[in-house]
């Protein structure tokens, strides 16, 4: 970095075991990791699928120089060597707990980090929607622990700030970073019930937290438990306390999705996701205040709005200045953060 600007000096493309480039195209419906999405060109023409496709959301470097990347399609965790070639891929039912397949589409793993002891931790962006029934009832999202040496996993129930959202699924994790073997910096964010964005950095401690991997209540996963008091009697949640409220200190971007703590244990760096600096603009002469998600595209290329044929003008445009820029915040804490 020089004069406040960062320069890209090298890029490393991700490749499968055979050396073929991995794309961001969605996975074919019916396979593990599929979100049932289809990829389209800017002219709404169908693109192909990539059954090795990834939607990377977090990256961490291990002691051997290998890259660990988490993805929100699967959700998957993938280990790559220094050249970007895939070493191993973990998926729900294949190295990861099968329950993770119930992630809300495109709300899989949003952050990944490696603790000093070498264990991998990945945080789901949002609550699980088990069998389509828990997105509005779950009181926590899950933090996964993966021991790369033994392959054993654990899961912890990170308690979202439920009272601040209209629905549990509105809470989103932005990233996670290990500052010790049991303490993490974690970004929780999302639109609150007051319609204002929340972007808060928490210190989360799992030392006394319960591994919820095999815990059920009346034969059902804990996401089904509606009684908050019953849940707290059943398990111990990780503890959490606010470290820094980004938005209260001038943060304006919607998504804070990268966090690290520097070796001084006093400096935190946070970066946003600018969504490529673009957004989709929709204009419809017959309707007002429409969004692209309001329309259904049919195989013959036609668009319908609530079952009625529609002919909107759809274009890709720059998003707002606040959103299209990339911001790197450097936060100096008043004292060293204890492990």
TrEMBL record:
Residues 5-276 form the Phytase-like domain. It comes from the Bacteria. Gene3D superfamilies: TolB, C-terminal domain. This is Esterase-like activity of phytase family protein. It comes from Caldicellulosiruptor naganoensis. The lineage of its organism: Bacteria, Bacillati, Bacillota, Bacillota incertae sedis, Caldicellulosiruptorales.
């Amino acid at each position: 970095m020089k004069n406040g600007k960062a320069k890209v000096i090298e890029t490393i493309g991700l490749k499968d075991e055979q050396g073929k480039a991995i794309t961001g195209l969605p996975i074919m419906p019916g396979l593990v990791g599929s979100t049932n999405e289809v990829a389209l060109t800017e002219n709404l023409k169908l693109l192909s699928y990539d059954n090795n496709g990834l939607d990377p959301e977090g990256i961490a470097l291990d002691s051997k120089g290998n890259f660990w990347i988490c993805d929100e399609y699967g959700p998957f965790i993938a280990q790559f060597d220094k050249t970007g070639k895939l070493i191993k891929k973990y998926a729900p039912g294949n190295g990861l707990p099968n329950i993770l397949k119930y992630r809300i589409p495109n709300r899989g793993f949003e952050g990944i980090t490696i603790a000093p002891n070498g264990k991998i931790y990945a945080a789901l962006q949002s609550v699980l929607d088990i069998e389509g029934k828990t997105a509005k009832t779950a009181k926590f999202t899950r933090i996964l622990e993966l021991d790369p040496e033994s392959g054993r996993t654990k899961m912890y129930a990170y308690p979202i700030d439920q009272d601040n959202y209209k629905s549990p699924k509105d809470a989103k994790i932005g990233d996670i970073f290990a500052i010790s073997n049991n303490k993490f910096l974690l970004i929780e964010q999302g639109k609150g019930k007051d319609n204002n964005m929340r972007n808060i950095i928490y210190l989360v401690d799992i030392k006394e937290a319960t591994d919820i991997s095999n815990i059920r209540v009346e034969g059902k996963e804990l996401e089904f438990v509606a009684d908050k008091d019953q849940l707290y009697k059943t398990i111990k949640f990780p503890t959490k306390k606010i470290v820094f409220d980004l938005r209260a200190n001038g943060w304006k971007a919607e998504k804070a999705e990268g966090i690290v703590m520097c070796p001084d244990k006093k400096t935190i760096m946070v970066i946003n996701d600018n969504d490529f600096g673009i957004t989709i603009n929709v204009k419809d002469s017959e309707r007002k205040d429409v969004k692209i998600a309001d329309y259904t595209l049919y195989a013959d290329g036609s668009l319908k709005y609530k079952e009625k044929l529609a002919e909107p003008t759809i274009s890709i445009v720059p998003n707002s200045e606040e959103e299209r820029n990339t911001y790197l915040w450097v936060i100096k804490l008043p004292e060293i953060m204890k492990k």
